[in-house]
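>> received
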Amino acid sequence: GAVNSNKNIEIKVFDNFFQNSLLQKIQSLLYIFLIRLFRIGFSIILVITQIKHVKKTDLVFATVDTVGLPLLMLKTFKIFSKPVVVNTGGLCDTLLEAKSALYMKIVSGLLKKASLIISGASFYECRKLSQLLSIPIQRFSFVRFGIDTNYFKPIKQQKTGNYALVIGADLKRDWFLVKQLAEKFHNLKFVIITLPNLISVELPSNCKMIYNQPIPIVRKYIRNSKFLLIPSFQNYHFAGQSTAFRGMSCAKTVIFTKSF
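>> returned
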């Protein structure tokens, strides 16, 4: 569909990739492999399936660097020439933990192709990325993180469910802590929305795993939950922020671990 937000901007939505379970499964496996090897996602299959739409746009906005980096790679190979704006949140963590000069050089080279780099985490991350990647600070912009409060909101007669909801698809989730909590509170059901093969910890029987869920289904689980649990490791940004804000916007209690 297309939404005319004003006279000058037309927004088009294409969700054909998310309706193809085979492509999603392949992308998930590739994502897990790369995130364990290089500690960063690289949604190249998603990008390739949308390249025909990219070529027709005036500007491409990548909401996450896992999409932005493969987009910039294809732009480097002259597959398309449209300007690209990349939003990042947590890339600084990844670069510091990778401890790879080659990886740093590759990411720097790709992001230098972006017209603008936006951080939804903090301006501190903008400054750190500018230093790490040797990109002028003028190429960065900080936009305060937010969620769609009209979409994520309580419904009439919303009931409190009987399960704790855990949502996470990155390496910053403390799954061992989830295991400990599930074992201690064995009468409480835990529903975990994540990616296949991401969790290496064996969780107890009161934990239910759900994979690759679209946003409408995630919202339904949030609304029907007892509370949300976000077990994060230490970060240079607040990991799990979208889940936390979505839960609070739906009038749910959110419990999260301390994170810088």
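>> Residues 1-5 have pLDDT under 50 and may be disordered.
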